[in-house]
Automatic annotation (TrEMBL), chains A, D:
Protein name in the entry: MoaD/ThiS family protein
UniProt cross-references to SUPFAM superfamilies, sorted A to Z: MoaD/ThiS
Domain of life: Bacteria
Family matches, as InterPro entries: Beta-grasp_dom_sf, Mopterin_synth/thiamin_S_b, ThiS/MoaD-like
Origin species: Devosia sediminis
Pfam families per record: ThiS
From TrEMBL, chains B, C:
The protein's name: Molybdopterin synthase catalytic subunit
Oligomer and partners: Heterotetramer of 2 MoaD subunits and 2 MoaE subunits. Also stable as homodimer. The enzyme changes between these two forms during catalysis.
Gene3D superfamilies linked: Molybdopterin biosynthesis MoaE subunit
One annotated GO molecular function: molybdopterin synthase activity
Keyword Cell inner membrane in record: no
Length: 83, 148, 148, 83
């Protein structure tokens, strides 16, 4: 599974994506974020205020409690500033 | 119509094409977002990062919701990414409706959702380097007014 | 800029010219009013009567009020009179502002005042003759929302 | 002084304007309208609901209680339908 990082989150991590294989106990996107943060101190710090981030699964924004369900691409999205 | 593109576009020409495609509408509203450089805090460019696949999906969903909610004849969104200089057009939304209030409400709804749910991130290029534009809590408030 | 004219104009081109004249604005809103013919009640033309001297004065006053109230960078109104066929542009307003809400509010304010205070009267040309378009009480209500 | 009529009011009267010389007791625009209605049955009928009309003096919309004050052009305006 590919995990994408954008904007200042990408900058803080010094990379745009990770290729990961979460264990079976990682069921929801919230589980995935917790698992990623536990493995990576820079990500853990950058997401100290998790409520500001939205998540997408296969290029659709979904709620944090959505099951991963075989997703191939998940993205962690800092607050957006388009328009 | 949804277009997410690094290429410049002509907002007036786009609006005219959009208008000509429909004879059922009595009202058209456009919103155009422009790169702005203030004399007291000048920028040399605005750099927009984008997640194109997600942007196209989310903008299409926002457009469909606006058309249904305000009974629009049609609606379109064009949004650029990449490096833009002051005066350039960042994005536009266009709505066509039978009457003016629906056209205005539809355009405001599109903008309010786009601000919080469309995956674009702005960086300002200044003499002292690049700085990320911060999201505004008022954008969340503007979006919230449409929630029933 | 205020223009009261029997001549056709190109709304997209007008908006582009207006936009290019300013580098201080981050947001532009246009409203375009179009001649509409519905399949269930078709019209062959809309005939607009006008009192041009009064129209110019009132539109200039409305424009000045909008610029001051919403701190607009600029605003313009173009309004046609005479005989127009379906699909033609009747009028447009354009607002330029630092941010989107002021641009939207300014354009809506201009439209709401224009509907009740600009001396234009519409007649619809149908197969059975001419009929005056009735003023809507909702237009008075829309104008009233800006009264403090 | 010229008095202008527009739209369906013009049609009902079969003319676009009148040239009038009101007597000195006609002070305000409301006085002028009352004086015109008293002289002209068609106008009196067409203005049976006077509250719907606006008035202009020398090409500016003003309230009905505004003095005529040497105006050269007054207009009686049915409800407007521009935009």
């Amino acid at each position: 599974m590919k995990v994408l990082y954008f904007a200042w989150l990408r900058e803080r991590l010094n990379r745009a994506s990770d290729e990961v294989s979460p264990p079976p106990e990682v069921v929801t996107l919230a589980d995935l974020v917790a698992w990623l943060r536990a493995r990576d101190e820079a990500l853990d710090l950058a997401m100290a205020n998790p409520a500001i981030f939205k998540l997408s699964r296969d290029a659709r924004i979904v709620s944090w409690d959505t099951p991963i369900d075989g997703a191939s691409e998940v993205a962690i999205l800092p607050p957006m500033t388009g328009g | 119509m949804i277009r997410v593109t690094p290429d410049a576009f002509d907002p007036g020409a786009e609006a005219n094409i959009f208008q000509a495609a429909s004879t059922e509408a009595g009202a058209m509203v456009t919103f155009t977002g422009l790169v702005r450089s203030r004399p007291d805090d000048p920028i040399s460019a605005l750099i927009l990062e984008c997640y194109p696949a997600l942007a196209e999906n989310e903008l299409a969903a926002i457009r469909t919701a606006a058309v249904a909610r305000f009974d629009l004849v049609d609606a379109a969104i064009i949004h650029r990414y990449g490096r833009l200089v002051p005066g350039e057009t960042i994005m536009m939304v266009v709505t066509l409706a039978a009457h003016r209030q629906a056209a205005f409400d539809g355009a405001q709804f599109l903008m309010d959702y786009l601000k919080t749910d469309a995956p674009f991130w702005k960086q300002e290029e200044t003499r002292s380097g690049l700085r990320w534009v911060e999201a505004k809590s008022e954008d969340d408030d503007a979006r919230a007014r449409w929630q029933r």
